[in-house]
Amino acid sequence: MTMTLISAADLADRLQSPGVRIFDVRHDLADHAAGRRAYEQGHIPGARYLDHETELAAPRSGKNGRHPLPSRADLAALMAAHDVRPDTLVVAYDASGGMFAAHLWWMLRWLGHEQVAVLDGGWQGWTADGLPVSGEAVLATRANSAATPAGQALADTVDAQAVLANLAQPAFTVLDARAANRYRGEVEPMDPVAGHIPGALNRPNGENLRADGRFKTPAQLRAEFASLLGERDPRTVVHQCGSGITACHNLLAMEIAGLAGSRLYPGSWSEWCSDPARPVARGA
Q1: Are the CB atoms for 221 and 128 separated by under 8 Å?
Q2: Cα(78)–Cα(215) distance, integer angstroms
């Protein structure tokens, strides 16, 4: 069973364990320095900060989306620099309902690291429970180097060419994790073109959470995804969002629900709409 979530209480019990590595990935897409500022003001003891713009994304070309997926080699080197080993339990948390943490969760699973979980309830849940907070920054422990091969990687990704070919000969269903008004093309705060990939379904990732910011139960998530996807095999679902981040929230939610095997289109809408030759749909 793929690891998915860890509770604040369970993580608190493991804070002193040398086999646990905690990453703070708080981020703001409109203020790229906000996450590091928040980390410096206070974080879970022992947590290390990772930046979604400079460390968890490859260089941007203007055609490969806002958060291009780094190579497996680069991601492995980053994890090695933080002394993440195959048996290390990695825990990721944020303050955005788990969407940035889910992205790191997916990236590590894509790398082949099996022991990785998202802190359920994130930073808000941790502080609400009165758990300890530290202001002491923790940096990488050693220079980048090749990481030891880990376990079985998740299914590979889907690229823009595959999504384009799928329009003519459908083999999978694209599931868009953006807010409904962005999906319909009514607003677009991040990218130059509004709308969605033709044929894509919409599941705003916020629907995966309860009012307290924690994930819904596996049974509830399974019922909701079944209502949207019908009898589709999870392996025929490809997740997409604005730049490949919030899509991972839906992918994680499906894993929690026991619907394993879906894939990610990392470039997502920001890559798709960068080429005016690619078709755009609007409306419901």
Answers
A1: no
A2: 28
Radius of gyration of the CA atoms of the chain, in A: 18
- Residues 247-278: b if buried by 16+ CB within 10 A, e if exposed: bbbbbbbbbbbebeebbbbbbbbbbbbbeeeb
Distance of alpha carbon 36 from alpha carbon 25, whole angstroms: 9
DSSP 73-122: HHHHHHHHHTT--TT-EEEEE-SSTTHHHHHHHHHHHHHT---EEEETTH
Q: With beta carbons less than 8 A apart as the criterion, state whether 198 and 270 touch.
A: no
Copy the structure tokens of residue 55: 């460390």
* pLDDT digits 0-9 by tens, 145-204: 555 545 555 568 999 999 999 999 999 999 999 999 999 999 999 999 999 999 999 999
Residue 221 CA to its chain's centroid (Å):
17
Which residue is listed with tokens 């996807």? Answer: 229
Neighbours of 130 (CB within 10 A): 8
Three-state DSSP class for residue 254: helix
Q: How far, in Å, CA of 17 to CA of 251, rounded?
A: 29
> CA 223: distance to chain centroid?
22
Considering the candidates 81, 101, 241, 254, report the single residue annotated as catalytic: 241
Query: Is 248 one of the catalytic residues?
Result: no
Element (H, E) at 175: strand 173-176
Q: What is the pLDDT of residue 149?
A: 46
Count of CB atoms within 10 A of residue 211's CB? 5
Global pTM reads: 0.95
Q: What does DSSP assign to residue 242?
A: S
The pLDDT tens digits for 241-265 are: 999 999 999 999 999 999 999 999 9
